[in-house]
Amino acid sequence: MEHFIARQPILDLKGKVYAYELLFRSGLHNYFDADDQDQAAASVIANSSLLFELNEMSGGKKIFINCTRKVLVEDFMTILPRQQAVVEVLEHVEPDAEVIEACRRLKNQGYILALDDFVYHQHFEPLLEIADIIKVDFLLSDVAEQERLAKTMIPRGIKMLAEKVETHEVYEQAKKMGYQLFQGYFFSRPVIISRKDIPTNKLQFLRILKDIHAEEVDFQKLAQTIQSEVSLSYKLLKLINSAAFALRHKVTNILQALSLLGLREIRSWVSLLAISAMAEDKPDELVICSLVRAKFCEQLAELCGFSNRQADMFLMGLFSLLDVIMSRPIDEILQEITVEEDLREALTGTPGTMRTILELIMAIEKGDWDQVSNLSAELDIDEKPLSEAYMGAVKWANEIYAI
């Protein structure tokens, strides 16, 4: 039996990951009947504690788990560590005496209590007395309700989480209302309001990306360019001397590193380091997500009949959030660097096989299993290896980012 996992980050006011909402399913074809939410919720808890390594998926951050009435009153959540698990009471759970008592037990044991898709009714007051976080759906609620909830709940010591924040404008608006946590925005393509100036260091990194993806790469010139950026030189040498490459002898200079890696590997790793450097003023999760996408796309190369293009597909995943990182439209950025035409089309949204691969990883991130199934069928690939590939990509991304 195959099991699948997705995760969605929840960010704080500084753009740092506060927690992940973990979404599990038994198979990609909705193995549990859509109406049997109790069984599905119980499976989430069982799988997260028995099949998957929590710290591997969450990086040690907190995890939000959806809870039905049955999960609450039968104390299923106590399987998970109280320091890490957040009890997310689903919106359809009626706060009757048993539910309130179950939530109080969990709260007394040290669990954080969150109310999902919250809409105020008087009968929720007993839960509000013990709630730590309220999640407000910014697509289903209007601005007046969002603001009213913030003004009434924050003085009660409750943190406000803006959910399904899809544009930069709404994200800024939520912050002004007093919301402290945010979910949804950083996995949507941003709305570019105006062209921003590129800071000098980002311009230099963009030049490095341009040089590394030129049709003919001058290694001597490239080494000199990289050496002009001390942080990039340091990171490249640290990376190539890490366990990820397992080289017998220590590499001590940039030209030697470039020679050992080879052109395709150079493009992948130098691009990774340049993007990481350009994202220093952005949430860490953007870089980690880029890494996960890169590794996942690389692993899909063989499944999709592109065994000879693993490096290209790695770059496609890596560049898929470049517009967010640089706060510029992706088509403008791609005018300044050279990539294969089908990669360019995929990154700019043009339909095709490469674009379908990108949409597959995005569907997995969102836990949209129906779309995952549809896209897998379109690519004519087996769904079974996807779970292991995604888990492997997440583990690899965390390890590389730590380096």
Overall tally of structural domains: 2
Quaternary organisation? single chain
Q: What is the CATH class name of the largest domain? A: Mainly Alpha
Largest sheet: 8 strands, mixed, barrel
Strand portion: 5-15%
Amino- and carboxy-terminal Cα gap: 34 Å
Largest sheet, spatial ordering of strands: 1-2-3-4-5-6-7-8
Q: Globular, elongated, flat, extended or rod-shaped: what is the shape?
A: elongated
Number of strands: 8
Low-confidence stretches: 26-35, 189-200
Question: What's the order of the H and E elements?
Answer: EEHHEHEHEHEHEHEHHHHHHHHHHHHH
What's the pLDDT, averaged over the residues? 79
Number of distinct helices? 20
Task: Please give the radius of gyration in angstroms.
Answer: 23 Å
Tell me briefly what this model is:
The protein has 403 residues and is α/β, with parallel strands linked by helices.
What are the key terms here?
403 residues; alpha/beta; TIM Barrel; Hypothetical protein af1432; eight-stranded mixed β-barrel; 52% helix; 11% strand; elongated
General description of the model:
By secondary structure, the chain is an alpha/beta fold. The chain folds into two domains: 4-187, EAL domain (TIM Barrel); 200-402, Hypothetical protein af1432, CATH 1.10.3210. Helix content is 52%, strand content 11%. The chain contains 20 helices and eight strands. The protein has an eight-stranded mixed beta barrel, surrounded by five helices. The protein starts with a strand and ends with a helix.
